[in-house]
Amino acid sequence: MTGGKLIVFSAPSGSGKTTIVQHLLKQEILNLDFSISATSREPRKGEIHGKDYYYISLKQFKQHIKNSDFLEWEEVYRDNFYGTLKTEVDRIWAKGKNVIFDIDVVGGLRIKKKYPVETLSVFVKPPSVDELKIRLKKRKTESEEKINMRIAKASVELATAPQFDFIIENIDLEVALKEAEVLVENYINKSDE
Questions:
Q1: CATH number of the domain bearing residue 48
Q2: Which of 20, 39, 43, 72 could form a disulfide with 110 if both were Cys (CB 3.0 to 4.6 A apart)?
Q3: Cα distance between residue 35 and residue 151, in whole Å
Q4: Contact at 8 Å (CB) between 24 and 18?
């Protein structure tokens, strides 16, 4: 794999990373394209294969693992796999673009470890766990039980923040968006030492 830069955004669910990544994708000067993850789970209502995820069967996913086709992968829940296919990064680099990831903390750190020179890793931190819970409830997309699971996971994920190159604290979204833009632009324009 050779090509552009890899930009990883990771965070606990509800921190605002997806909003930040969507904003960055609209900034033409950054020349970014979104890395679509593969998953073995079924599509949710309204999700589209090749846009939201590449939906593949559990058997196919396990075969890709055997073939070392993934840049990173993880079994998030039992028989629920997520990962980044190497071909996805190659597809984006072939277009002459930089790759941006909206990815969980474990996957983000794995990419950074594999490609330390090419990767900018950014952790988006919520103001507090309480604020995170409020944001997740406002979404009205998950049960109380699911929200509590995400909050428990968030505490573990927050402890990994120092392992990332930068931490953006998302207290004020406009400030966080600007900070992300500057970080990514500086990284893309920096020549490799």
A1: 3.40.50.300
A2: 72
A3: 26
A4: no
Query: Residue 49's domain spans which residues?
Result: 6-189
Q: What type of residue is 159?
A: A
Tell me the one-letter amino acid at 80. N
Cβ(41)–Cβ(61) below 8 Å: no
Establish if 104 belongs to a structural domain: yes
**What digits encode the pLDDT tens for the residues 2-20?**
578 999 999 988 888 999 9
Q: Which residues of the chain have pLDDT under 70?
A: 1-2, 191-193
Alpha-carbon span 109 to 156, nearest angstrom: 14
Cα–Cα separations (whole angstroms), residue 148 to 11, 129, 166, 174: 16, 11, 27, 28
State how far the Cα of 147 lies from the Cα of 154, in Å rounded to an integer: 10
The pTM assigned to this predicted structure is 0.89
First to last CA, the chain: 19
